[in-house]
Structures are given as C-alpha cells and as structure tokens.
Design a protein that fits this description.
Helices cover 24% and strands 38% of the residues. Helix 1 packs across helix 2. The model has no long low-confidence stretch (mean pLDDT 92).
Length: 114
C-alpha cells in the first residue's frame, strides 16, 4: 500500500501550494507540489509535479525537497511561507520534524481544513 501525506503551504500573498509526500516503497519517498492557487479559487482537481529524478531514503528528505522548492518559488515572487497545514494527519513527517526543517517562525497545523 502506498502511503501519502497531504500538506498545504500558505503563502504571504494568501495563495496556497499543495504538496504530497509519497512513500513508494520502504525507504523510497518523493515529494510533489502543485502550482499556487488563490485560497478562494482552489480547484477540485490539482496537477502535482514530482520533485527530483530519484526517490529519497527518508520522508524527511522528501519533505525538505518540497520545502526547498516552495521556498525557491517564494523567493522568486518575494513571498514567505506563513503556515503549513497537514489536513489528514502526519503519517510520514510529524509536526515536530516539520518545525525542525522549516523553523519555529512558521505555524504548523495538523488536521485543520485546507
């Protein structure tokens, strides 16, 4: 069974970037992200882009890939990540590890809508 963790990144302009952490098999994880969407116009169907050409050995490494990609998008647009939400629990990377990777200035939520 493939496990997936949904994570949304809320940006300083009010937009949201959605991501997945996917456990392809034991010790094989990848991150995926969408384009950014206005909080008021989130489509039901989203297209995810897989990051990197190879799987990572840990879910934290895949989460770091997602964070780095979104951070680069933010830098290019002059934005910041304000909040990270895990709407369906934290199956692969818990909130403590997310705080360690992102820093304590970013709010981490678990089981909150969107």
């Amino acid at each position: 069974m493939i496990r997936v963790q949904d994570i949304s990144f809320h940006l300083s302009d009010g937009d949201v970037i959605f991501s997945h952490l996917v456990e392809l098999s034991i010790d094989n994880y990848v991150g995926e992200i969408t384009e950014s969407f206005s909080k008021n116009s989130i489509p039901m169907t989203k297209v995810y882009t897989r990051l990197g050409s190879s799987a990572k050995n840990t879910s934290c490494e895949a989460f770091s890939d997602v964070c780095n990609a979104i951070d680069q998008i933010c830098k290019n647009l002059g934005l910041n990540i304000l909040e990270v939400n895990n709407p369906c629990n934290c199956e692969l990377v818990d909130s403590i590890n997310q705080t360690t990777i992102l820093g304590e200035e970013i709010i981490i939520k678990v089981n909150d809508s969107i």
